[in-house]
Amino acid sequence: MGKVRSGGDYIASISHKTDNKHTLSSLNTVNINKKSVLTFSTSFTVSEDSKIDKFSGRKTERKEFSIHKSLTALIISVIVYYAVSVFFGAPVFEVYSDTLYFSVLMTLLTVYPLIWYYFFCDNLLPVLKILSNSKFDNLTESHLHSMVLWTVIGAWVGAFPIPLDWDRPWQTWPITCCIGASLGNSVIHLLIGSKIFYGLFRDRRKIAYNRSV
Predict the structure, then answer these.
(1) Which residues cross the membrane (predicted)?
(2) pLDDT score of 86 more than 80
């Protein structure tokens, strides 16, 4: 004859089965939650990666576009300086290579720094403000304006010895203009650097004085 289970054994077996069911259901719930969390994190990562890719792509496109515009600006600047030199008396075809050299030098001394400033601020308005001699927003714009102005003035002053009848080899076009432009650019850089260092030295003295007091 089979064993007859008592009421306590029957209740214990039922509770054990119930506990097993609860354990399995809780495990299934945990697995489902893990899957949902993994799915959410994966989708979030994919979306973030796509955003980063889009942002980097836009940044690369903008950088390439800026480089193209900068090269165009440099070429236009060389042409403009060449035309201005011819307008002020430089030979058109006889020594075109020398005139082209002077135009490239003036472009590097005046326009090239403005292009770097355009890359920095990502706006054309401050660059136009520098060239138009209007109110400046910061010291950098004021310094760039002074640099362009002194370079052009140096080149203009350097043209004075050319028509003189001294018959010197250095009077040949555009040697004196190149020297004048380079000197004007160098002098303004020295003045600006001295002004900056003097300002830093003065600020340090003020800070040291305030600390001592």
Answers:
(1) 71-93, 99-121, 142-161, 173-201
(2) yes
